[in-house]
Model the fold of this input.
Amino acid sequence: MTKKPDRMAWLRGGDAHCGNPPNPPPGTPWRLVLLGAPGVGKGTQADLLCSRLGACHLSTGDILRAADCAGKDRSPALSAALASMKQGALVSDEIMLDLVGERGRCLRCCGGFVLDGFPRTVAQAESLARIMVREGVELDAVFSYELPLDEIVSRLEGRRVCPGCKAVYHLTMQPPQRAGICDACGKQLIQREDDKPETIRTRMRVYQESTQPLLEWYAQRGLLIQVPAFGTPEQIYVRTWTCGRSEPAGLTPAGGDGDPAVGGEAPALHARHP
Ligand code: AP5
Done:
């Protein structure tokens, strides 16, 4: 397992550099997109995938929350974006494309990436495709995690996050060792502002209207892999690769035979580009 990259270049943008850049295992870096309703577990899977693949977890929600914490010198456009986020609405495509477009170097990072929360609209997917051409890289696969709504809502209501290292917990399903305290950095855990019940309802509606059409968009390009998201995070992680091997994107183990060992080394896998 590799040390978690600090993602400073992604979170801050501009001239920021990562203090501990990724140190991926030998092989081609993986470039993945995770889709799924709010709270289905994308961030949890992104962390598992990144720690095993040596890739970087690129979450657009984390960029916005980092900007919110930074306060002060915020443009009016960014202030409006943060207000939208707190209400559970989508931030405008224009702002999101500025934020991701200026972080193109993160997309060509040697460790590869797991994009979580972007794209969220067909317009964003089209722009991502253009940015990737500009950066000279290709997507390997798009995983879409699927779960019934009531289970998703219970995941969101019990979620607690660390404001320092961004680790994610659940009150009952993934509790920290000491109640309310982050296992990794010792900070007091908090509840996200957009995890209130009324905001959750808005986020679900927005997902169905704006983000679900993306499934068809990626399916048409042979990249979509649908993954049932029930069970423990480790079970879903293993299922991610199992589903991948039988779907059109054609993820196959390179000289390996079975699922990546739970808690084991990063799997050596090949993607077949469509
Ligand atoms: P973002 O931060 O991307 O949030 P999201 O997509 O709504 O997803 P979440 O982070 O809420 O959930 P998740 O699927 O990552 O679940 P998690 O792993 O934490 O975006 C926030 C906002 O920013 C958006 O609403 C929007 O306003 C704005 N935004 C961001 N990107 C944008 C874009 N591209 N365009 C426009 N606007 C944008 O898990 C949830 C809980 O379940 C946790 O407590 C976890 O511990 C638990 N859990 C996870 N897996 C399991 C399991 N298998 N079993 C039991 N519990 C589990």
User: Anything to note?
Assistant: Residues 36, 38-44, 59-61, 64, 84-85, 88-91, 96, 117-118, 120, 124, 155-156, 158-159, 168-170, 173-174, 194, 203, 232-233, 236 surround BIS(adenosine)-5'-pentaphosphate (CB under 6 Å). The two ends are 30 Å apart (CA to CA). The beta strands are 30-36, 56-59, 112-116, 141-146, 159-161, 168-170, 224-228, 252-253, 269-270.
